[in-house]
Amino acid sequence: MGRFLKIAIPVFLVGFVAGNAFWYLASPLWIDDVVSEALPDELMVQEVARGQFRDADRSHQGTGIAQILETGGGAKLLRLTEFQVTNGPDLEVWLSAHPDPVRSADVAGAAWLSLGQLKGNIGDQTYIIPDDADLSAYQSVVIWCEQFGVLFSPAALTGG
Prior knowledge:
The protein is of the alpha+beta class. It has two domains: 31 residues; 115 residues, Superoxide dismutase, copper/zinc binding domain (Immunoglobulin-like, Sandwich), CATH 2.60.40.200. It has two helices and nine strands. The strands form two sheets. It has a five-stranded antiparallel sheet with strand order 6-3-2-1-9, with no helix packed on it. Strand 7 and strand 8 form a beta hairpin. The longest helix has 25 residues. The N and C termini lie far apart (73 Å). This is DM13 domain-containing protein. Keywords: Membrane, Transmembrane, Transmembrane helix. InterPro entries: DM13_domain.
């Protein structure tokens, strides 16, 4: 019995740790997080720039529209509509100085501004851009995996 426990306990512990690590890393691949944020009807906004999300590669795919909006009060917003991206761990929404990122190295090698964690991998959502952000310094929006330094989906911005 003692010999059995000497083998069973380490095997169980290794399996438990490996199983949890697998779940943490892989579960976003088959679990979608759907959001549906609407802009208030009374909010007056003007489009400053827009871009179309596209696939970064065959494993990291995205579609939808990114819009930089400015409110009547001067606040700046990033609006994602008709949005869908491959889910993954630790995804963030970044403004990037790179004009048209294709690879992760393009994003990592350029200045960027994180707008926070991605709220959901499917659906319309809005992010507040800090008042002191110089929008002329950023030319694209990217969905970025902070944990692994991987580009999931870029959207090159053009003037609105």
